Amino acid sequence: MIFATSTEILNALIDMDPGPLYGLSLIPYLGFLWWAQQSKSLPRLSIWGFRLTLLFVFMTIIFAILADQIYGLELVEVDAFHGAAEAFLVLSDALVVLGFIRAAQQQVVKNS
Predict the structure, then answer these.
(1) How many domains does the structure of the chain reveal?
(2) Which residue, 20, 66, 79, 96, is most buried by CB atoms nearer than 10 A?
(3) Per the UniProt record, which residue ranges are transmembrane (predicted)?
(4) Domain contains 10
(5) What value does the mean pLDDT take over residues 6-18?
């Protein structure tokens, strides 16, 4: 049996199309969202932030397509589109953090 060297493995990973892995990564994230919805331990506002992360993913795809179709460039090369896509990530992250901050503020400290 012939074993691949670490260089060969790295080169194979570099040449691999990440698209299918990107799509497959949504499966565990959707599982997390389902668990978060069922669990009563996460703040509702934070759950909305986690849901909006999917909007960020969708908008990133849309802006990447627009950057390619309009300018023939990658998304990271078109600052206006890249910034607009990242704004959705900022919004979702802000809701996650705000939800946890509010939950921490609402906890009652019990002194014995």
Answers:
(1) 1
(2) 96
(3) 20-36, 48-67, 87-104
(4) no
(5) 82
Predicted model pTM = 0.76
* Amino acid letter, residue 9: I
53 occurs within a structural domain: yes
Angle 89-91-95 from CA coordinates, rounded to 5°? 115
In a domain, 11, yes or no: no
Residue 7 within a domain: no
Tokens of 89: 């990530």
Q: Which domain holds residue 33?
A: 19-111
Dihedral, 95, 96, 101, 107 alpha carbons, nearest 10: 120
CA distance 11 to 1: 20
- The C-alpha atoms of residue 34 and residue 51 are separated, in whole angstroms, by 10
* Residue whose token pair is 């199309």: 17
